[in-house]
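Sample pair:
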Amino acid sequence: MKSNKQINFYVESGNLDPWFNLSVEEYLAETIEPNQMMLYLWQNKDTVVIGSNQNPWKECSIQNMKADEVSLARRLSGGGAVYHDTGNLNFTFITGKELYNLEKQLEVIVRGVNSFGLNAQFSGRNDILLEGKKFSGNAYFFGDTSSYHHGTILINADMNRLSNYLNPSKQKISSKGIDSVKSRVVNLQSVCPEITVKKMKTALKDAFRQVYGDFEACSHFEALEDAHPDILKLYEKHSSWQWLYGESPSFDAYFEDSFDWGEIQIGLNLVDARIENAKVYSDALNTGFAGKLTKALLGKRFATEELRLTIQSIEASQEEKKILQDIALMKELNPLG
């Protein structure tokens, strides 16, 4: 008989390969028990990580990345594109769905950062700020039996490289009254020079123990060749062209808009005025609606009212319903112009 007592684990990766680290993250989420809570710390070398539904050709400067040998990775969670280097520390809280508690998980991060005498605060749905500037972006994934919340902590990341590889939407930037990607973020070390990645790991480990209690064990992942076969299988997926880029056909119709929940781009291929192929790109934190929308559009006539009714009738959660309603009412979603 399995115990219902909560068991805490601390996990760290010593590998800087983004595909390996994301494979470990997914493996841990697939194998965690309902009564387990895990803090996983990891770092990537020179990588742009995009959200699960994002279009890499639109979000990244692919040419610059290839020239500078910067990797591309795609995570399971939603949200926007971010740049990782070894001046950035990533964290993931992985747990059974019933133990998922965003406020408590964020307390670990804020407590760890503030142990250096700072005053970090959570803002909105996915940012942690210091003196009004972002040093941590967060995203979320909800599986059938487990959930995770992960994010970045900018310690001494190369801000010039960050802005060289990301193509943020002009609409997104102007709506916030901000001039550039670089001006929106801050390295913790620029405010508190004593902070290092190593010291931050220790601070987060201590904060995790303070908030959740002692942990059962510490695990360390290092070499790909020593990894569990299931991690190797996930690595094949995370490093594949299909997973990273997907199919990017030339579309017969293309719509895009921006809402308070994020941006949306919809590409359609038509045969005899019916939708044969649909592709939905978005940086929304909610990831579930994109697949439902794609499936619903296939085979439908390319006519305004049919598209609107189709989108509005999709079975979805309340959060997804709001997103789909906004999409259904897009002015651009009008084949007649």
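The longest strand covers residues 133-142.
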